[in-house]
Write a structure and sequence with these properties.
α2 packs antiparallel against α4 and α6 runs antiparallel to α8. This protein folds into two domains: 105 residues, GMP Synthetase, Chain A, domain 3, CATH 3.30.300; 100 residues. The protein is built from ten helices and eight strands.
Length: 218
């Protein structure tokens, strides 16, 4: 689960909304993980890319802080992966569930809330962004850009970006942006005190990223 367009995200969203429930054996496994590590588990998905790949269990935690408990440095915690795979195997053997290939089962972890916040931002209509720019009324703004839930206000020059940040305008503009973002926050994940926007410049965009959004956000 990488973006809010992914099928796994959409299925998990329905669970969060109360429109869908986890079925056996995943409901039991989710409860076990939640109790063992004191985390909120929204979904567990069994899949495999194709017949040449090992089967996979996707454990979708609600919060990013909960997902981080299953990492060791930059990698997944192998001991926890092994424990969860073992529990899944135990449930399958106990209930004589033979429809799951568990040979080489790989367990991965992701978080729902960060993608929900990204989705909330993506639902702001372009006309609302234009209206916000009009309300700000700063002629030194070149562009308000959104990508993966990150908001960046581009000024024309580096000097302008640095000056307005020194004046604290980033906090002022963040509050104004939050006002149009919050109505799209279905699950209440967004908090004004934690919401920030970045300042950058068209000068930097042109000189260091070849005027390409692809290079800028890659």
């Amino acid at each position: 689960m990488i973006t809010h367009w992914d099928r796994e995200y959409k299925v998990t969203k329905r669970i969060k909304q109360g429109k869908k429930r986890l079925a056996a054996p995943f409901a039991e496994l989710a409860r076990w993980i939640a109790e063992k590590w004191n985390v909120s588990v929204l979904n567990v998905i069994y899949d495999r890319a194709d017949s040449t790949h090992a089967p996979r269990l996707q454990v979708i935690l609600e919060y990013e802080s909960h997902a981080r408990r299953f990492y060791r440095n930059l990698n997944f915690d192998s001991a926890k992966q092994k424990a969860i795979a073992g529990k899944f195997l135990e449930i399958n053997e106990r209930d004589k569930l033979h429809g799951f290939d568990v040979d080489g089962l790989f367990v991965v972890f992701s978080a729902f809330a960060p993608l929900a916040r990204e989705e909330a931002d993506s639902q702001i209509p372009d006309e609302d962004i234009h209206a916000l720019n009009e309300r700000i009324g700063n002629p030194d703004i070149w562009e308000i850009s959104r990508c993966f839930g990150q908001v960046t206000i581009f000024f024309f020059t580096d000097a302008q970006a640095k000056r307005y940040e020194a004046e604290g305008r980033n906090k002022e503009y963040a509050r104004m942006y939050f006002d149009i973002l919050k109505p799209h926050d279905e699950f209440g994940y967004l908090k004004e005190g934690n919401f920030t926007i970045a300042f950058d410049s068209k000068q930097n965009f042109d000189e260091n990223y070849e005027s390409s959004w692809f290079y800028y956000y890659r």
